[in-house]
Design brief:
alpha+beta, three-stranded antiparallel β-sheet, 12 strands
């Protein structure tokens, strides 16, 4: 007789004596593993007409298809907008820092005249500070005490072979440890000096500190 699995509809040829018990028999499908009670073969339950048993057809699994690989030669990855702005900001900061460093190096003479301790910093990195008035020199600096305070005198000399403009002078007072305690900017004694010419300058410090023991005079931009 023909027995059909109610789950996967697979058919089996079974001998009728195997299913002739009055209470039927529990059978299990060899294809899907489903179990069920098969009623016995009686006159009320005739065996169906035999039909050819077609073994279950197992369809082959579809071949795995690899996902397409993007063409990296023709497609460029576009970075997110936020990353582009971050990269642009970083580049701008680096450029700004570079410009500031170049300005400090180019104007180290002026920087050292305004802030003398910076001259040692420039010299430490192999960039000695040059005078903003190359060819001019300050000579014969003489401090003296007077009734109106401390008076600083000296002269500016043009040692070049051409006429030079004289920038302003920065006169600073220092204590015994070389620390600057007071300074002032004064006008040049003469606007233009001829080759070999010297010009005398004099400036008082009316309220000079009693701790002042040294004087430093430098050029500043005119």
């Amino acid at each position: 007789m023909i027995v059909t699995c109610p789950a996967c509809r697979t058919r089996y040829m079974v001998a009728e004596p195997e299913l002739s018990r009055p209470a039927g028999r529990i059978v299990r499908c060899a294809n899907c593993g489903h179990s069920w009670r098969q009623e016995p073969v009686t006159a009320d339950h005739p065996s169906p007409e035999p039909v050819p048993i077609v073994p279950p057809v197992h369809k082959p699994a579809p071949e795995a298809v690899a996902p397409p690989v993007p063409d990296t030669a023709s497609a460029a990855v576009v970075p997110p907008r936020r990353h582009r702005w971050f990269a642009f900001g970083t580049l701008a900061v680096l450029v700004l820092i570079g410009l500031v460093i170049l300005a400090l190096v180019a104007g180290r003479g002026w920087v050292s005249s305004v802030w003398p301790p910076s001259a040692r910093l420039f010299a430490a990195v192999g960039l000695p500070a040059t005078s903003p008035a190359t060819g001019l020199k300050i000579d014969k600096i003489t401090p003296s005490r007077a009734a109106d305070g401390l008076v600083i005198e000296g002269e500016v000399v043009n040692s070049a072979r051409i006429s030079l403009k004289v920038p302003k002078l920065r006169v600073a007072l220092q204590d015994g440890a070389g620390k600057e305690i007071q300074f002032k900017i004064i006008a040049p004694p003469k606007a233009l000096l001829q080759p070999g010419e010297a010009a005398h300058f004099r400036t008082p410090f009316e309220h000079a500190s009693d701790a002042a023991t040294g004087v430093v005079v430098t050029f500043t931009p005119g």
